[in-house]
Design goal:
alpha+beta
Length: 161
């Protein structure tokens, strides 16, 4: 019986040596070690979620309704553009007033720094708007297969003042 107890004690010491982590973890205190670091890890995760709840949503500087017109050599059309942010990114609709009032979804909207780019795909071709956001207005070039011109947009809140 004594040999069994001595052999068992030696096995425990060997296991304790094997599982020691810089002398801090042993078989006797492994539960405390796990609880200590699990608690710290849980606190870090909880802090991450609390801080992310208070992180403000990024609002694009172009979100909202814009009113303007595009002009070419012999053509001028008033239009409105509504930009909004959703889970897939920046989206928009354009409202054309060329003999009727039509609301059409923009196929692509991109804002990077002061550069504003949006496109409207139609049967007659794709209208490409390349503009710059400056002094609270968007202005730039309008390109299509058979049309070239300039456009300017002003936020609705500034138009109504």
């Amino acid at each position: 019986m004594f040999e069994f107890e001595e052999s068992h004690r030696q096995d425990q010491e060997l296991v304790a040596e094997t599982f020691s982590y810089q002398g801090r973890i042993t078989v006797d205190n492994i539960g405390g070690f796990i609880m200590k670091y699990f608690t710290r890890f849980s606190a870090v995760i909880a802090l991450f979620f609390v801080l992310s709840a208070f992180t403000p949503n990024t609002v694009s500087p172009v979100e909202g309704l814009w009113i303007g017109e595009f002009t070419s050599v012999d053509h001028s059309v008033s239009f409105k553009v509504h930009f909004w942010q959703d889970h897939d990114g920046l989206k928009g609709n354009i409202y054309l007033s060329d003999g009727g009032s039509r609301e059409l979804p923009l196929s692509w909207v991109m804002v990077e720094s002061t550069s504003v780019h949006f496109e409207l795909v139609q049967n007659s071709g794709t209208l490409v708007f390349d503009g710059i956001l400056k002094d609270g207005k968007i202005s730039g070039d309008l390109l299509c297969s058979n049309l070239r011109g300039k456009f300017q947009l002003t936020p609705e809140r500034l138009v109504s003042l």
